[in-house]
User: Which sequence fits this backbone?
């Protein structure tokens, strides 16, 4: 099968699964009908509900098929889909993705290196990203996790003005990991 055809078919399946039943696609005998102005018309046979929709030159859309009886609304379906797509696009535009940036410290890190990495972490936090701080233990240093814990606590204290500790420092195999999240109140 050609990849283009497969993508087209897959796209159609995804689109059709999100669609609502409209006009002739509705397969119920009786439906609770809501008018285009929002008033309830009551429980009507499907044929009467379709007649009322066609009389207003609108569509009958099944908005709640699992209700007893199913709920259908008289509306302009094309306009409804357009507004729905517009709302989704707006929500997607306003959505901010949060990344996790990683900073790796050494077990015996010098003061200047510590401050440089701390400034990088503060910049990441100001941008609204989480920061994963890690220390890798090698050789004899594996026997001294308390030194790594002190370094992590010192780093958390350095970044305390702009962050909160989301996940405290904890050993994970040969690494010690801590996650800092930006403070929410600005």
Assistant:
């Amino acid at each position: 099968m050609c990849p283009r055809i497969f993508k087209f078919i897959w796209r159609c399946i995804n689109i059709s699964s999100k669609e609502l039943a409209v006009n002739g696609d509705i397969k119920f005998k009786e439906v609770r009908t809501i008018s285009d102005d929002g008033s309830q018309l009551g429980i009507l046979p499907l044929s009467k509900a379709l007649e009322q929709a066609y009389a207003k030159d609108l569509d009958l859309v099944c908005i709640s098929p699992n209700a007893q009886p199913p709920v259908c609304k008289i509306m302009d379906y094309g306009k409804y889909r357009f507004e729905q797509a517009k709302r989704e696009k707006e929500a997607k535009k306003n959505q901010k993705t949060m990344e996790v940036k990683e900073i790796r410290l050494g077990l015996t890190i010098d003061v200047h290196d510590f401050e440089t990495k701390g400034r990088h972490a503060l910049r990441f936090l100001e941008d609204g990203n989480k920061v994963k701080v890690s220390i890798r233990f090698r050789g004899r240093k594996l026997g001294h996790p308390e030194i790594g814990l002190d370094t992590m606590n010192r780093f958390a204290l350095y970044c305390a003005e702009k962050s909160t500790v989301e996940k405290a420092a904890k050993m994970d195999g040969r690494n010690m990991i801590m996650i800092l999240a930006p403070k929410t109140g600005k």
In short: The two ends are 54 Å apart (CA to CA).
